[in-house]
Amino acid sequence: MLLAFFSTQSVLAVGGGTDYSPSGTDGSPRGTDYSPRVEERPTGLNNPLREDVSSIPDLFNIILDIVMIFAIPIIVFFIIYAGFLYVTARGNVDTVQKAHRAILYSLLGAVIILGAKALMVIISGTVDSILK
Question: What are the sequence ranges of the domains in the chain?
Answer without folding.
Answer: 56-131
